Amino acid sequence: MSFLPAPARSMPRRSVIRPLMTVAMLGVCVGIASYISLMTMTGQSLDDEALAQAKADRNDFFPWIFLAAAQHLPELVSIAAAVLALVWTFRTRRWIPALAGLGMILGANFTTQFLKRVLLEKPDYGIQQIVHNSFPSGHTTATATILVALLLVAPPHLRAKTATWGWFLAAITGMLTVLNGWHRPSDAAAALLIVGAWGVLAVLAIRFADAALSRPGAHPSDVYRRVRQKMDARRENLQQREDRGDSAFIPPAGSHQQQHNPHQPGIGQPGPRGDGNPRFGTQGPAAASYSNAPYVNAPYPQAQQPYPPAGFQQNPYAQYNGPGHGHRAPVHPRRGTVITLLVLAIGLAVTVALMPSPAVAGTWAGRATVIAGYLGIAAAAALSWRSVARWLRSLS
Length: 396
Fold this sequence. Notes:
By secondary structure, the chain is an all-alpha fold. The chain folds into two domains: 14-214 and 320-392, no CATH class; 269-314, no CATH class. Helix content is 63%, strand content 0%. It contains twelve helices and no strands. Helix 4 (95-119) runs antiparallel to helix 7 (185-213) and helix 7 runs parallel beside helix 12. The longest helix is centred in the N-terminal third of the chain and has 29 residues, at 64-92. The relative contact order is 0.15.
């Protein structure tokens, strides 16, 4: 049985292609949502009717204290998640996930603003309540990115709960942007999908960094440790030379210099037993220390110790252990939840779109439209969080 440390593993090609396929799938979903909600008259009418119904329901079903809290809940969630992420980062010293989370926050928010202000335009079909383009939602993106960053820096045993609460709070934040009259349902859903794509890219960056740091001596602290060891060895070698001088003096038996100085004649040099070898001869000072000791214990007693020696610690930054290794946190939300939410949202939207009379706020069709929008937001959040949590399972 070998006690040697396992060699560093490089990331398999499958571990790179499959996350990129997930990112492409989320990007395709954003493209489909943008085409339906912006470029088609049916999509625009359903989106605007859901917004009108949400505004009408504010005063009918929700008390004023709830509406006042809903105005500030996204900011409160963002602040609380950011503080908790900082605490977990400094307690666990997960600097690489923290940097990846920061890059994810910047990238997702930049993507949202670029799509909204530069790339996408909303044609005017005479049915929209808000003239300018609001797709995707910047409010939802800002809060969701901080929640995903919290998931990246969460300890392994808390990832399942963090994913569940992150999905729930992100979905609630997206729904509140509709209830507050800030955005349409498609805006919030697309923002959550964009955040999920950038979250998968952040996980992929963490896995690349962990695979690189798992190589022996790759971490800066290992380089510094090797330099210190070389300096100490050189200093000890010079000290031994000064203590030895040019004479062939053999220190007395039991002295520190005799036991640890490999440069003394007869000390630390392999050779046969006999009178000609001062280590094992029956004459001289060296005989007192080695004559009664078995050969396996002299002159290299450290050779008999098993590897790794006591106190040996693997590189704490070697987190990547390949697919199927390491802590595998449960994935939340589950695939059945995503499929159920998507089927319900699409089913309600298609039913309302195929009705002969248009949906009007206060009617059954209007309420079905806004419910479909809320279900779509929850489905987008579930799909995004599942995609990120799935690739976090192989990280320790």
